[in-house]
């Protein structure tokens, strides 16, 4: 086996061999050197012949998107993929590189679900600059070679020390949820989202991001046939709309969106709460690692819906909201995990997300503040719900420096489609 830092280097050889046999393998053929590659929340170890730690100072496209920093690696000359990958859902993402290695195409990512001892094979298509599937016959041939350990020293070990972090981000992400949501072909990339952005509701922040995308060089070269390859996300209404309902009642329905949540669960998820939570995790991963703005908008829609409920967390869907708060907590916790290497120029930066996405003047501050008021001022509240609400509040205050006790501040972006809907009554 190839040597390296972390758990793989300290592992007993017999145990390592057993993990190689039982774990799945991702064999990636002909990937050019300097291609950026990542899987899940992996942050090491780095094997010099297989990987080089990627710098944060990447050029070629400058979007204010969540930066994929130290969890993505530059492929070395011997790289042929990953071994010891635990069975279950995973997210693979990569960026093709220029010959000089300092310009990169937009990130392409895809979900996959691996089984014990399974070998998944992809090959680099030099013309399209992406990973493609092989024929069944070729895949069987390469799978047998992997099981004979013919590629073993060219496969980087999956860092099992960070697997717990990935599980916290993907524990509701089933194979059926992935198949339900993923685009045709499975590939997720912001380069195919330009036509969608023209139709998307826009806050000030989102308008700035879309303008940057239009000005980027790769936005001008997207093939026409690629423009409709988005994910099949659930339609989440921004507001409750009912005929024959008074203005006051309609305002109340939009201030507490429990009825809308119930409607969405029944219509799109067959009443299964975990399917909605699976979509919440799918969108966050596609946004955080795949740099998909469409995924961010869907994640925002789901978070906005859940944080706008009052009756559901306290009475009708308490268990679901305990699971939601736990999921949401770990998303923000891992998204804003700080780098620890004091020798790196990136020391102290977020590993995954740019704090500008969650500045105090956008949706998350107001919605979180209102939600905490509902929970903390309730006369009776579930203990687990209260515990996770307190943990989330502390995380937001310590990570972002927010004052969530400030009653004088009420920040609402009037262009935000998820802002509260107030129906004004006429005087008649």
Automatic annotation (TrEMBL):
Cited Pfam families: AAR2 (PF05282), AAR2_1st (PF20981)
Protein known as: Protein AAR2 homolog
Similarity remark: Belongs to the AAR2 family.
InterPro entries: AAR2, AAR2_C, AAR2_C_sf, Aar2_N, AAR2_N_sf
Domain AAR2 N-terminal: 70-183
Organism for this UniProt entry: Urochloa decumbens
Domain AAR2 C-terminal: 233-405
Highest taxon above the source species: Eukaryota
CDD domains documented for this protein: Aar2_C, Aar2_N
């Amino acid at each position: 086996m190839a040597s390296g830092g972390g758990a793989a280097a300290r592992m007993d050889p017999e145990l390592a061999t057993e993990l190689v046999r039982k774990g799945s393998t991702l064999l990636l053929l002909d990937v050019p050197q300097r291609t950026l590659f990542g899987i899940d929340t992996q942050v090491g170890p780095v094997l010099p012949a297989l990987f080089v730690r990627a710098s944060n100072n990447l050029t070629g496209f400058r979007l204010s998107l969540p930066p994929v920093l130290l969890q993505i690696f530059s492929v070395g000359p011997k790289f042929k993929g990953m071994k010891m990958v635990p069975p279950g859902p995973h997210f693979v993402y990569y960026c093709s590189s220029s010959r000089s290695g300092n310009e990169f195409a937009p990130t392409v990512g895809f979900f996959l679900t691996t089984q014990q001892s399974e070998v998944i094979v992809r090959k680099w298509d030099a013309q399209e600059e992406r990973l493609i599937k092989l024929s069944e016959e070729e895949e069987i041939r390469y799978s047998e070679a992997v099981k004979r350990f013919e590629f073993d020293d060219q496969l980087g070990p999956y860092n099992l020390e960070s697997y717990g972090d990935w599980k916290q981000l993907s524990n509701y992400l089933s194979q059926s949820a992935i198949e339900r949501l993923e685009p045709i072909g499975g590939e997720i990339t912001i380069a195919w989202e330009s036509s969608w952005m023209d139709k998307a509701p826009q806050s000030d922040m989102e308008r700035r991001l879309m303008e940057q995308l239009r000005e980027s060089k790769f936005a001008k070269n997207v093939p026409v046939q690629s423009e409709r390859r988005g994910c099949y996300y659930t339609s989440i209404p921004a507001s409750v709309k009912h005929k024959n309902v008074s203005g006051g009642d309609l305002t109340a329905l939009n201030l507490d969106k429990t009825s809308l949540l119930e409607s969405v669960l029944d219509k799109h998820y067959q009443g299964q709460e975990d399917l909605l939570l699976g979509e919440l995790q799918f969108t966050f991963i596609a946004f955080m690692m795949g740099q998909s703005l469409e995924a961010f908008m869907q994640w925002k829609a789901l978070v906005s819906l859940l944080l706008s409920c009052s009756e559901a967390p306290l009475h009708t869907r308490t268990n679901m909201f305990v699971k939601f708060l736990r999921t949401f907590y770990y998303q923000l916790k891992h998204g804003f995990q700080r780098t620890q290497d004091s020798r790196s120029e990136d020391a102290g930066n977020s590993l995954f997300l740019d704090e500008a996405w969650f500045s105090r003047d956008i949706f998350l501050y107001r919605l979180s503040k209102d939600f905490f008021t509902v929970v903390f001022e309730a006369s009776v509240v579930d203990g687990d719900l209260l515990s996770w609400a307190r943990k989330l509040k502390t995380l937001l205050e310590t990570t972002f420096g927010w004052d969530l006790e400030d009653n004088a501040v009420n920040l609402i972006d009037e262009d935000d489609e998820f802002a509260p809907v107030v129906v004004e009554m006429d005087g008649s």
